[in-house]
């Protein structure tokens, strides 16, 4: 009688393995949520609780006084708070929409259009990923100054519209689109604009939704403090940092400002994450 060898169970297929994976993921989730939890707790602590040693990871006497003082201080600025809010909304919308349009169009050209020098352009974009914005800050200021854009909305929108990371990110996704789809559309008489926005973009929905989240988060945090000196053109992050940087007496107000600034990107991510996960799972393409 021939003995059938007993198969070894996979670690992830056993109950113990599933429990270990769950515990590991739960620990990672708690670790990632801890800074958010700490920011919220700091924002509802009275000032005197900031000086308790050892520090408490919870508020013994929760209060909303920090948020009240935050909006009172914002209301006493030279410019109405509504103006700062409008500036942030305007800059965020312009940068997010423009970055999505520009990155998608440029990525399509780099990934699917065969023109002379396209490989060199791809290499330049890859190399530019090595440089942070602080490295090119002086050059950007010189260009904006020569164009007369200092102290204008252009100074806090144009430098952020085209970023190497967004173009590289979209190009990587568009490179996965089969050339047969592009060729079939061209045989039907479609031009590059129609192919890009009606064929390629729907098939890379996970990419542009993810880019939308990243672009919104980055645009919402734009301060433009190096290019903007007019108080009426400053954004919310700049004003919130000015209010919070007033010494130890306003530590709670600074924490409240942090929570206020990080709330819109979190809300956007919560609404988009299910869509991103769903489209990621269904983004496979076949010939």
The strand count comes to 0
Could you give the order of the helices and strands? HHHHHHHHHHHH
Uncertain residue segments: 283-287
State which percent range the strand residues make up. Answer: under 5%
Give the fraction of residues assigned to helices.
55-70%
| Gap between N and C termini | 48 Å
Described by strand count, sense and barrel closure, the largest sheet is: none
Mean pLDDT: 79
Radius of gyration: 25 Å
> SS-based structural class?
mainly alpha
Overall, the morphology is globular
Supply the number of helical segments. Answer: 12
In short:
The protein is 64% helix and 0% strand. By secondary structure, the chain is mainly alpha-helical.
Summarize this structure as a short list of keywords or feature phrases.
single chain; 287 residues; mainly alpha; 0% strand; globular; disordered C terminus
Question: Could you please describe the fold and organization of this structure?
Answer:
With 287 residues, this protein is an all-alpha fold. It has helices at 15-43, 65-75, 81-112, 118-128, 137-146, 158-161, 164-174, 179-187, 192-203, 205-220, 236-244, 251-281.
Produce the secondary structure layout:
Layout: H1 15-43, H2 65-75, H3 81-112, H4 118-128, H5 137-146, H6 158-161, H7 164-174, H8 179-187, H9 192-203, H10 205-220, H11 236-244, H12 251-281
